TrEMBL record:
<protein>
    <submittedName>
        <fullName>DUF5107 domain-containing protein</fullName>
    </submittedName>
</protein>
<feature type="domain" description="DUF5107">
    <location>
        <begin position="77"/>
        <end position="389"/>
    </location>
</feature>
<dbReference type="InterPro" id="IPR014718">
    <property type="entry name" value="GH-type_carb-bd"/>
</dbReference>
<dbReference type="InterPro" id="IPR011990">
    <property type="entry name" value="TPR-like_helical_dom_sf"/>
</dbReference>
<dbReference type="Pfam" id="PF17128">
    <property type="entry name" value="DUF5107"/>
</dbReference>
<dbReference type="InterPro" id="IPR033396">
    <property type="entry name" value="DUF5107"/>
</dbReference>
Length: 990
């Protein structure tokens, strides 16, 4: 037995604990906290960091309708988030808000302005960054809404990459009674406004980083989601990703492809690994970064273990992730690949910190896309854990207490690492249950302990570590896993090829749940109803879809059809979702008494009791029935699941009844469990961040509960809040205020609010949701010539799939004489896609250009339309030459311009642009610049050469699975296709 502290290499010099040179400087703890740290406590504090930053440009003022963009295998829809398309070429020092956590073993840095990600994870015992430390903030166009940075740990929800990954979160520091310290980060999903809180926690005397997550569906609708914690690890030839030993296969996105693991036994991502291994032994080992030459994802399948991680053999250090297997089956590796193509991407994302891999941990998911469900009001709570390991090698088994590596060469030995001090621990190796080697020792984090034996390897070997009281810390035994090859997904048949109504319904549900980018569920559900018009499941699915797009009469008809079928033989069906949905529709239609009846019946089913209870209480409060509302709450509290919305409603009822003290006390007590819940904080009398979207969310909560005065105060606060890159709510907020004043009979005040809406700044004002829809519809009813309301209404309807209604709204806005380039551009898209009027589309783009002659996006889209309308390359080039300075401000436009130059005999000009202008690739759009470079070289009669550094990318050595087939159709299993696809005439209108 021996204590091993390996030389961890030159990358971990002792003076790097607080950084030097170009590394981010890790700040010393403030004086008072420093004393606590010296006593062994866990501490946290907020203090800015100065980091070299390549700023993301301001987002486009144009809404992006990217429903059919293929992104991570699902829809790349980005509306209502403004889309960012450019990154600065040069970096500058910038101060970032940072929250620091530290104990005797670990240092962490959290960046609230970048989604609350962990940016640095540093092991003080070995001097090793167990999470990849990117010493610059250098985004690339990888994120759903544009910018994304590598490094640290990104928390992805409700899809990957997180919609709010480049948006700020609100934070607070909690010091627990148990000596723990937690940094809570809170955001509202920019799409559906669900709430997420993740707490990053350190405990005294432990090297474990705990992530505590609370995902709350604060909406009235069932929502789909996934959760992937995306950990980056710095890699080189000797870095190994390790997974449980029962992992014999890994799968690609959507399980479209499969290979054995760790030795790939077939071509994967276009790489013939068995052939490479025949030339170079071990070249098929895809657990080592050095062997993967192309951008590659793999997700493990069917493991029953809870751990995995990465190990740096050169440094003698690494990390382990652990989470409870029943909730967290997802384990994945992603890499850009160890080849020039991948290295070029590394350079786009960092200045000097080199390549990385992503080791992702999925909760309620094991693939991408692979979405689960959150019921209305449901809260899912879970934890994930990471900790650094010293020189034990790749872990063969791990818990949150310890990890073990077992050598099975000539003789068995085991190396252990612990996460907290363990005095008098027992290390044992057993053979067939008989102890063959044993030792007692004091173990501490950062120092491995080795136990050797004289026994030869066998299937009866066990290696274990016991605490001084005999409690098991970790145990490894050989894994006996079935070697049967797992299933691989296939493409669903077309509706006409499916026999059963059930399969038609389920296929549509699969497409809807996983947000398929190119295939709609509607043909499947319509085919199902063509065979059985009363099928309850299909009618309910169509009711839900119609409801979400605001087609309330259609939704009610489908919901009632579902109820008729469900109750034909049984007045009390096993599932009452149809009643619940009917209640939502009736409430939106203002038929409160009928809605209350539906919610009451929905509450008979335990699955829907909590959600229907909340909606019933809201309806009762809107109709002034406070005592009835309290009775409903009394029947729910303590019986159904935790829901902060219900607590807020009780506080509101008490306030309405005059019990301010009781109301405030209830809200404050609830904040112990949900410290950053925005509505509860407002009801508790606490300040919340001046985030306009968050303030508007609270206002809508209050409005739904009939608290109109309070809602108006929050709306005014939202109007006063600064506009951020997440969007501009000011015009909508004014229209919502007008709706509330109209409800109260204050018509003059409502007219003033509508006037304020028209006067408000319109950039990034992209309304979404049923509350916004109602407010805008009412504004148009009150003033049919309100061009601002019509323009905003058109944006919302177009994004919701009601494209014909959107077209009508935009055309009406233009008829008022409104001169707005965003309106003209939107109407031009609709003219082409919906009205199929190519000439009108061209004219409208001309008006948009005249209104905003320096808007490069409008010019780019106009040129894309010109190509679709059959304009010659000469005509297009003639139109662009006078505005070349604008053309060259965009990567995509500059590439298109260079192609036009080549086509029209000006290849030398194209060559000059490609050599001198810096380009930034976008994920999935790789190869565009290189293809243009090759065209220019060919036209100039020059030999094919490697692309210059200015193009920002390198040639791919292998052909990855193609997104678009030879027939021009996007492959069903495509994972990335970044084309904007704004001009699509084949989309279905909901």
């Amino acid at each position: 037995m021996n204590n091993d502290r390996r030389d961890v290499g030159s990358t971990m010099a002792a003076d790097e604990e607080y950084g030097h040179g170009d590394r981010i400087i890790l700040l010393e703890a403030p004086g008072a906290l420093r004393a606590d740290l010296d006593r062994g406590a866990a501490i946290a504090w907020s203090e800015p960091l100065n980091i070299l930053t390549y700023d993301a440009a301001e987002p486009s003022i144009h809404p992006m309708y990217l429903d059919h963009r293929v992104y991570q295998g699902s829809s790349g829809k980005v509306y209502p988030i403004p889309f960012t398309e450019q990154i600065a070429d040069e970096g500058a020092m910038r101060e970032w808000q940072a929250v620091h956590l530290e104990n005797e073993y670990v240092r962490l840095v959290v960046l609230p302005e970048l989604g609350g990600r962990i940016h640095i994870g540093y092991d003080k015992t070995t001097g090793y960054d167990f999470f990849y430390r990117n010493n610059v903030i250098k985004p690339a166009l990888v994120g759903l809404a544009g910018p994304w940075i590598s490094g640290g740990v990104e928390f992805n929800w409700p899809q990957h990459h997180r919609p709010g990954t480049y948006l700020p979160v609100e934070t607070s520091i909690e010091n627990g009674d148990d000596g723990s310290v937690t940094v809570w980060c809170h955001d509202h999903d920019p799409f559906t406004r669900m709430s997420a809180q993740h707490g990053i926690r350190l405990r005294a005397g432990s090297s474990v980083v705990e992530l505590v997550v609370r995902l709350h569906n604060r909406t009235s609708e069932r929502q789909s989601f996934l959760w992937w914690a995306n950990v980056a690890a710095r890699v080189h030839d000797d870095y190994q990703s390790f997974f449980p030993q029962d992992v014999h296969y890994v799968a690609d996105h959507a399980r479209r492809a499969l290979t054995a693991f760790p030795e790939a036994d077939r071509p994967y991502y276009g790489v013939d690994y068995p052939a490479l291994a025949a030339e170079h032994e071990g070249a098929d080992r895809i657990d080592f970064y050095r062997n993967i030459p192309v951008p590659t994802s793999y997700m493990i399948v069917d493991s029953q273990q809870g751990f995995f991680g990465g190990y740096d053999h050169a440094a003698g250090a690494g990390f382990v992730h652990w989470a409870e297997r029943r909730l967290a089956p997802g384990k994945k590796q992603w890499t850009w690949g160890d080849a020039p193509f991948g290295h070029a991407w590394d350079d786009q994302l960092t200045d000097a910190d080199g390549p990385y891999v992503e080791l992702m941990a999925g909760v309620y998911t094991d693939n991408q896309p692979d979405f689960s469900w959150l019921l209305p009001g449901e809260t899912k709570v879970f934890s994930q854990y990471w900790y650094p390991i010293p020189a034990i090698g790749a872990a063969h088994q791990a818990t949150t207490d310890a990890a073990v590596h077992v050598e099975r060469g000539g003789r068995v030995s085991a190396r252990f690492a612990v996460t907290s001090r363990r005095e008098g621990a027992t290390l044992r190796i057993l053979d067939g249950g008989v102890v063959v080697a044993s030792a007692t020792a004091d173990l501490v984090p950062g120092v491995p302990m080795t136990l050797d034996s004289d026994v030869a390897p066998s299937d009866a070997i066990t290696a274990e570590l016991l605490a001084d009281d005999g409690g098991l810390l970790v145990r490894w035994t050989p894994t006996d896993a079935a070697d049967e090859e797992p299933w691989v997904a296939d493409e669903p048949p077309l509706p006409e090829e499916i026999d059963s109504v059930e399969e038609l319904y389920l296929t549509g549900l699969h497409l809807q749940q996983n947000r398929h980018p190119t295939r709609s569920p509607l043909p499947y559900w319509r085919a199902a109803l063509a065979r059985d018009a009363g099928d309850a499941r299909t009618n309910l699915a169509l009711a839900d879809r119609a409801y979400r797009s605001g087609r309330l009469d259609v939704a009610l008809e489908h919901a009632q059809t579902a109820i008729t079928r469900l109750t034909r033989r049984n007045a009390n069906p096993t599932d009452t979702e149809a009643y619940y949905l009917a209640g939502l529709v009736l409430a939106r239609l203002g038929r409160e008494a009928e809605a209350q009846q539906m919610f009451g019946k929905a509450g008979w089913d335990g699955a829907w009791a909590a959600a229907s209870g909340v909606e019933l209480v809201r309806s009762l409060l809107r109709t002034g029935q406070r005592r009835s509302a309290l009775r409903v709450l009394d029947t729910l509290d303590g019986v159904v699941g935790h829901d902060t919305r219900r607590i807020a409603l009780r506080a509101l009822v008490l306030r309405a009844c005059g019990d301010e003290v009781g109301s405030t006390a209830i809200a404050r007590a609830a904040l112990v469990a949900d410290p950053l819940d925005a509505t509860l904080r407002v009801l508790a009398g606490e300040e919340i961040e001046a985030d306009a979207g968050l303030l508007l969310d609270v206002a809508l909560d209050l409005k739904l509960a009939g608290a109109l005065d309070d809602a108006l105060r929050m709306i005014e606060a939202a109007i006063a809040a600064p506009v951020r890159r997440s969007g501009n709510v000011r015009p909508l907020a004014h229209y919502l205020a007008a709706e509330i004043r109209a409800i109260r009979g204050e018509e003059d005040a409502a007219a003033r609010d509508r006037s304020r809406a028209r006067e408000a700044e319109q950039d990034w004002a992209f309304p979404a949701g049923l509350d916004a829809l109602r407010a805008l519809e009412l504004a148009v009813e009150a003033e049919p010539g309100d061009a601002t309301a019509l323009a905003l209404l058109g944006m919302l309807l177009y994004a919701a799939g009601r494209r014909r209604d959107a077209t009508t709204a935009w055309n009406r806005a233009i008829e008022t004489g409104q001169q707005d380039p965003v309106l003209f551009r939107n109407a031009a898209l609709a003219a082409y896609n919906v009205e199929h009027d190519e000439q009108k589309a061209w004219q409208l783009y001309g008006r948009a250009v005249d209104s905003a002659p320096t808007d490069a996006r409008i010019r780019y889209e106009q040129d894309q339309l010109a190509a679709r309308l059959g304009h010659t390359t000469a005509q297009r080039l003639d139109a662009l030459r006078p505005v070349e300075h604008l053309v060259l401000t965009r990567d995509d436009f500059a590439i298109e311009y260079a192609r036009l130059l080549v086509a029209e005999g000006a290849a030398a000009e194209a060559h000059r642009i490609l050599l001198t202008r810096p380009f930034h690739p976008w994920e999935g759009g790789e190869g565009q610049a290189i293809a243009t470079w090759d065209l220019a070289l060919d036209a100039l009669g020059l030999p094919l050469t490697d692309p210059p550094a200015s193009l920002g990318e390198a040639r791919a050595a292998y052909v990855a699975p193609v997104a678009v087939r030879d027939d021009g159709v996007t492959d069903y299993f495509a994972t990335s296709l970044p084309e904007m696809l704004l001009f699509t005439q084949d989309g279905e209108d909901d």
